[in-house]
Amino acid sequence: MEKSIKQILDILESTYGGSETALKYQTPFQLLVSTMLAAQSTDVRVNMVTKDLFRDYPTAEKMATLTISRLEQYIKTVGLYHTKAKHIIATSKILSEKYRGDVPSNREEFVQLPGVGRKTANVVLSIAKQVPAIAVDTHVFRVSNRLGLAHADNVLDTEKQLMKNIPQKKWSEAHHWLIWHGRKICKARNPLCGQCPLNNLCPFYKELRPGPK
């Protein structure tokens, strides 16, 4: 591992070590639903929605009994709620019938579920099933490419490069480090580079900084 990459990972770990997902859930199924809802939405909004939803329909078996229109009433403040309602009900039926209400333990089966892509599968597998994985969302994509942990123009290549540059035992943890760094400091617009503990190691900051490079 390059020295600068190791330094970056060490600083991220010392800053965000022990951080977890901001989504609120009690079971792997609930984490899956929350992650599906979080696409093009915020964790804060999702938690507001799922508070009532999980109170009334906490399991895949119960969620599968909902009509699309009924589920939409719970999640209508979340982006793309109509499509998400269809996918969540369809997925709930499969999980209740095929997996006894639990979620799959491998990515190949996971991504066959309606509305579940590689990122969502990686999130749930790493958190709920302790399967080493790096889920690349918009924060992870942005931060890792700015810091030079990856040099890619798409999510899949970013994931592959992060898997190469980060020790496997740290994959799931590093996912959270990068997300929280993106939320708190390395924002999409107006990143707080002056407050960043990584700015002396960051290629993005060096390009922004005025004066000789």
**Quick one: overall form?**
elongated
**Total number of β-strand segments?**
0
Counting helices, strands and paired strands, the structural category is: mainly alpha
In this structure, how is the largest beta sheet organized? none
Strand content: under 5%
State the end-to-end distance.
25 Å
Named CATH topology of the largest domain = Endonuclease III, domain 1
Helix content: 55-70%
If you had to describe this structure to a student in words, what would you say it looks like?
The protein starts with a helix and ends in a 5-residue tail after the last helix. The chain is an all-alpha fold. It folds into 2 domains: 3-18 and 135-208, Orthogonal Bundle (Endonuclease Iii, domain 2); 28-128, Endonuclease III, domain 1 (Orthogonal Bundle). The chain is built from 12 helices and no strands.
SSE order and pairing:
Layout: H1 3-16, H2 28-38, H3 43-56, H4 60-63, H5 68-75, H6 81-98, H7 107-110, H8 118-128, H9 138-147, H10 155-165, H11 171-184, H12 203-208
Helix pairs in contact: 1-11, 2-3, 2-8, 5-6, 9-11
List keywords for this structure.
213 residues; mainly alpha; Endonuclease Iii, domain 2; Endonuclease III, domain 1
Describe, in short, the structure shown.
With 213 residues, this protein is mainly alpha-helical. The chain contains twelve helices and no strands.
